[in-house]
Structure formats: structure tokens, C-alpha cells
Hints:
Elements: E1 5-10, H1 19-35, E2 40-43, H2 49-63, E3 68-75, H3 84-96, E4 99-104, H4 111-121, E5 125-129, H5 135-146, E6 150-153
Helix pairs in contact: 1-2, 2-3, 4-5
Amino acid sequence: xxxxxxxxxxxxxxxxxxxxxxxxxxxxxxxxxxxxxxxxxxxxxxxxxxxxxxxxxxxxxxxxxxxxxxxxxxxxxxxxxxxxxxxxxxxxxxxxxxxxxxxxxxxxxxxxxxxxxxxxxxxxxxxxxxxxxxxxxxxxxxxxxxxxxxxxxx
Length: 154
């Protein structure tokens, strides 16, 4: 189903003043891709952009029942250091996802890297929020380019 799938990648820190605009752009892109037959949306479950993307897919699924939120998570303990609100939101996303895959049971030095590669390897499209040319988001976008994904920058 790679041809009918999209992944998300973006920074954990989003400018608070831009969150609403980013959410609107996400919703528009999800709707546009769903209109092209994209039904599977892969998300990595991190704070920031990943959380915003997952919530956007869950909202879109109410209008577009054929789409699915599929989580590829680095490890089962990903939310260990989240605050109470973040943990509640994470559990809401987890319990409403259509599928959950864990790269590792426990945190390892490579589980985030493998999660990012797995998101890309499942997808034909990548919606990204990229503002820095270093770090995991940049690596993931560069990997997606090398794998031939269509990149959608927000």
C-alpha cells in the first residue's frame, strides 16, 4: 500500500503563534491527499509536529472515514518523560489509532533513527515541517528525498 500512504515529520518545538496556521495547512494537505486516494497516514508519535499531525488525521477521519492513522513508535516507553497533559494526549492518540507498531520495547540509541526510516519506507508522500537543516527532521526529509517520496513542505 506504499502508493496510498503518507508520513509526517517535523520538529518537536513549534512556534506557539504558528500552531493554528500549521494545523490548518496540515488539514488542507490531508484532505487533498485523501482526495487523491491516499488512505494511510503514518505518524511517529513524538511531541510537537507529530502530535499535531496525528490529531489532524483523527479529525479528518471523522469526515473521511476511509483514512487510517498508523503509528510507528520508537519504543514502548516513548512517553515516559511527558507531563500529565502530554501523556493524556498521547494515550488518546494511541487508543484511537488504526494500528501501532513499535520499533523496540525499550529505548535504544537507534530506535528514533529506525522509526524515522520506517515511516519513510512505508510511504509515497511525506508532509514535513522543516525549519532547521540539522537533526532528525532534516535527516528524515533527506532520506525521503533519496527514496523518491513526494515531499510536501508546510
